[in-house]
Amino acid sequence: MAFAGIVTYSFRMPASRPNDDERALRPQSDSPPALCTACEARHRGVCGALDGEQLAELARASHLQVIEEGAELIGDAERVESYSNVLSGVVKLTKTLPDGRQQIVGLQFAPDFLGRPFREESTIGASAATTVSLCSFPKSTVERMMREQPQLENRLLRQALDELDDAREWMVTLGRKTAAEKIASFLLMIARNIAPRAAGAGETASFDLPLTRSDIADFLGLTIETVSRQLTKLRIDGIIRIENNRRITIENVVRLAGRAGD
Amino acid sequence: MAFAGIVTYSFRMPASRPNDDERALRPQSDSPPALCTACEARHRGVCGALDGEQLAELARASHLQVIEEGAELIGDAERVESYSNVLSGVVKLTKTLPDGRQQIVGLQFAPDFLGRPFREESTIGASAATTVSLCSFPKSTVERMMREQPQLENRLLRQALDELDDAREWMVTLGRKTAAEKIASFLLMIARNIAPRAAGAGETASFDLPLTRSDIADFLGLTIETVSRQLTKLRIDGIIRIENNRRITIENVVRLAGRAGD
DNA sequence: AAACGCCATTGATTCAAGTCAACGCGGCGT
DNA sequence: ACGCCGCGTTGACTTGAATCAATGGCGTTT
Fold first, then answer.
1. Which of A29, A94, B13, B149, by CA, is between 20 and 30 Å from B102?
2. What residues make up the domain containing B251?
3. What percent of chain A has pLDDT over 70?
4. Which of residues 96 to 115 on A have a Cβ less than 7 angstroms from any strand C atom?
């Protein structure tokens, strides 16, 4: 695996002095480790399926990683030895044709679970769209817990079904929407994931795009030129404001939704 | 639900005389019901997760349905009261935009499981691409068994992950392949599902397309004219033979694969 | 501060696939 | 036998997005 740009903090690593994190992960009776209590994955993610003792055990085997923008997490057709929870940032899942054409087939936000159970090597690549922090576990530990705790498998099933719904939603976008509709749909999807409050109710929403123009093109099956042109069109029509390349403000969520084709 | 064109054989239905099927489903000790023993779903499908007693119980609650080509199984945003195994035929999963544009987001072959656990109403439509036979169960029975038998949830997870892999594979096709590559990929996928032997090893493979030109277009994000033209091109190039509208012979599987873009 | 690289935008032109239209073929009802 | 209808094919033309090419910020290096 290309570990370029990946900083790893192992909680099992012998530290010069026991730091706060280290202590936070030690199991006390069967209450959850302090670090996990504050973790999104503990509540909305797969760790919610575990009891205090299991959580402590998993936490002991886990380590945090901070991955910088652009770094590859999993190569295509690579043997994968660990699973992770996304704690922050955005991970892009990609597929590449032999001649280099690329398609982003999914985006993962906190607290999504990253990994493909029941398959030795992955059929997709994963890389950090933004700086990403992960809580990673050895494959074997997670797989043993899946057998011991059916609730965990239930969570994974729920996430897999949600991802399947998402993937099928994007199949419609890829297959049947125009470039303009694709861009509108994309902005709405990002807004809903990054700034859910604003995107749901409010008229305006402001956020940083987690993807470059090139990534957006690879996600929507377009070229960067078309992405750029459609964004300027939305800007000229007063639907979005482009603060700078990355920062976008949706001036009118309802009008944007009207251009998404559904 | 639109039951037009759906013939239902209930195994709980009081028959004028106990027929073979009826007797086959009665539980004897804990050996599997005779009907299930011969069923593909018993071996490769989700029923493989159940023991003899559970299988007998599920079989008692099940009923067979034969659905004719074109009939709708599940409407979009419809409340779904049952799950099914596909025993034969092909089910198409569709999504439709408000203005009528349609995208087929998946195809299900025997012995796939049909249904979306953990969600009250479906977000996709399902209809019979060919004549389809289903083994259907009440939602509640399956959901209880999922709780009692984690193996069942494991099977569903595996199928969901496989479907997710398929969906992502098609996202690449929809987003990044040319019309010619889309058609080649489609023919290969169908061949692998319908005539796996021939498609894998042999040089030629022969099968009936389970979809109309219009369905193929909706699956690949193309128009029927483009589908027709690309098929003609493959025929002129001697890669396929079009026996009649439905029946296709792949003259050279390797050459076809060479045109699929991957 | 000049030079470079990277990312994004904008304009001019091309082309793959869509649209519109005509026609062919086979099954079905009258 | 006839006309009709649904499905598929083929041809002529149009168009939306890709391609090719030039230019503009902006941060980093020298």
1. A94
2. 177-260
3. 88
4. none
User: Are A47 and A116 in a shared domain?
Assistant: yes
pTM above 0.85, yes or no: yes
Chain A CB contacts of B103 under 8 Å are 171-172, 175-176
The residue among B100, B132, B163 that closes a domain is B163
Token duo for residue B43: 């071996």
- Given a cut of 50, whether residue A169 has pLDDT beyond it is yes
Are A151 and A190 found together in one domain? no
Distance B35 CA to C26 C1' (A): 39
Helix B179-194 with B224-236: angle, nearest 10 deg: 80
Cis peptide before A111 (omega within 30 of 0): yes
Q: What DSSP string runs through A149-162?
A: -HHHHHHHHHHHHH
* CA–CA distances in Å: residue B196 to residues A60, B169, B170, B234: 46, 18, 19, 21
Q: What's the pLDDT at A27?
A: 43
* Cα–Cα dist B244/B252, whole Å: 18
Helical H segments across B48-120, by residue range: 52-61
Q: Examine residue B86 and state whether it is found in any structural domain, yes or no.
A: yes
